[in-house]
Amino acid sequence: MAFKPFPGYEQQLETYRAIAHGTAEEKKAALRAQRKALLAPEVTGVTFEDLYIDGLEAGHIMQLRVCRPEGVKGPLPLVLDIHGGGWTAGAPETDDYRNSLLAKGIPAVVVSPDYRLAKDGVHYPDPLNDCLTALQWLVKHAEEMGIDPARIGLYGTSAGGNIAAGLLFYMHEHGGPEISVAALLNPTLKLGSSPSRVRNKDFALDSENWALAKAHAYLGDLDREHPPVAAFPGHAEDVSFLPTVILVGSEYCPLVDDVVDFAKKLLDAGVHCELILTPGTAHGYCATPGPMTQWTMDGICLTMKREFGLL
Description:
By secondary structure, the chain is an alpha/beta fold.
């Protein structure tokens, strides 16, 4: 397969190659470089504030990282950002750059919860329920937070996209705030193989066994052959109730075929769906500045503005 990275994303693709196929030392170095890149971009035009609320479990205190556009009066739409990291890693701070683009581009208040990671007895639906708890707290405190509870969006990348999509199904069954729009960037939607997982194995998120171990860590003891739909929404049969969904898939992401298949499922069901396929990019390309990052985020902001009635 001819390899044609989009200009500005060459190093990121090489980092993924090292993570998937490098030696132990090369993999460690690539992971360090990846995290450094996530935290490095300069963020301007917004303010950040960390709040702490009671979680579901006794003694669990959950951080909410709040990003606001400077000089914009509320109430503003709310976007709940759910960070990635394979359910077992990651933190709200790694999404500061993306959240700043959302906050300024919509404009909106963007909040990222520090949900519990899948380890030490934490499994599905615990991380998902943490995000739902954060969302319910924000709606309850909408006036003091300066947000409009009638205009809520979800945004998530990778495992964060999985949880964001899962929330839509979980709240359909159990109840929750109404969601206007959800943006899912290279979300993990299904278990199992696909042509793109084979085709893009050089840019895998991790070794195949380790990536599978992360998914199993999220599921815990649940049936891996027939997982709950809210855990892996790509297996859902009924999607007709979903709000507007923005799906982003990258040419060199192993998950891109699942993203395309899910988009077709939504369109066939009459769900308003926008599918963005980005050339020459890998799984987490939107985490760092670049021309394709800006183009993608501009499109997401435009759609969210439309769904929030801001156009």
